[in-house]
């Protein structure tokens, strides 16, 4: 238990640092802004109580907000992601369910499952985030394009990180 | 109480979610100038929209009052305007009265009784001799000629409407100035007939018919209607059907026009007849 808390704290710090120092500086023509910190929400154990999930989501988003100077934007989207995570897990669950005490990982449940799960949550998160960022419906298609491209890149980076974790 | 607890237990995730989203939204709208502006703009848009709806509804109740006000304002402006309109020939007037060279005065009134379906139609207005009205004064609706006063009591006057077989009015075609006599034939309340226009005159359908001012009752140039049809009648004259500008079926606010120099004109004219 303590072990898990330390492990997740380290993951949290690592992802926040990666996000702030590296990914926030990636900008391909303004359309691609990967937000990889969402991986922290994705990797929390299956048994995490919903209220804790929500509070952790809020905390994650809030800290990212502090560093990017956009109060409320990331927290809002991340809380939504934390809220939908249990539903997404229920829908995408494999035939024999999830193993007790485990967490969503590519190693345990396979590449295909992981990519569907990640893509769904990331897409919901990014949709909320980008629409909150522009905060209007004019230029709807442009926003949609940004959502698609950024989701694609975020998922790619999350897969890369997951592979690196697997190798180690 | 138990139900409430059950409810809270069942939906605690949703509640936490909504509370957290509420907090983020609050952060969003207070922390970011852009979002703040958008939120304020939207809420203002909504309140403005509602306010406008309420206002629209409310203004209906004041329409009557506003109409009265506008009518009296019109009269005041007409009174002023008449003085300026004829300033070009003021050299021929001796300035001897307080009204300077004003020739017509206007007074507003409301129609309280009206008919259109008889052969000799009259209307009653709510002002009379105590308001300075007298017989042989002109009555116009806000858009055209309505009739002539034929009888005045203290507080009411009766006017002969254009829709009366006895009504005669000197009228002319605005585009070329030929004048004739306007009468009503007794069948259609929208149309009157202009006769005595010779056949060499050219005009078209839609041309304006206006008053001539010869009768010393109506001022010159008041709109009567437009030409809607014409045919050659016996002799050398056209029989022109005129679509009346005034819709007598909805006659309500009228202006009474008094010619201040009528007496002078008539006295002069009778000396040569």
Second CATH tier, the architecture of the largest domain in chain B: Beta Barrel
* CATH topology value of chain A: Arp2/3 complex 21 kDa subunit ARPC3
What is the count of distinct domains of chain A?
1
- H/E topology pattern of chain A: HHHHHHH
Beta strands of chain B, count: 12
In the CATH scheme, the class of the largest domain in chain B would be Mainly Beta
Give the strand tally of chain A: 0
**Proportion of residues in helical segments of chain B:** 25-40%
Computed CA radius of gyration of chain A, to the nearest angstrom = 15 Å
Q: What is the level 1 CATH name of chain A?
A: Mainly Alpha
Q: How far is it from the N-terminal to the C-terminal residue of chain A, by CA?
A: 22 Å
Q: Overall pLDDT of chain A, averaged? A: 88
Radius of gyration of chain B: 31 Å
* Category from helices, strands and their pairing of chain B: alpha+beta
Q: What are the low-pLDDT stretches of chain B, counting only 5+ consecutive residues below 50?
A: 87-95
Strand order of the biggest β-sheet of chain B:
1-2-5-4-3-12
What name does the CATH topology of the largest domain in chain B carry? Thrombin, subunit H
Shape of chain A: globular
Tally of helical runs of chain B: 5
Largest interface: A-B, 21 and 19 residues
Helix content of chain A: over 70%
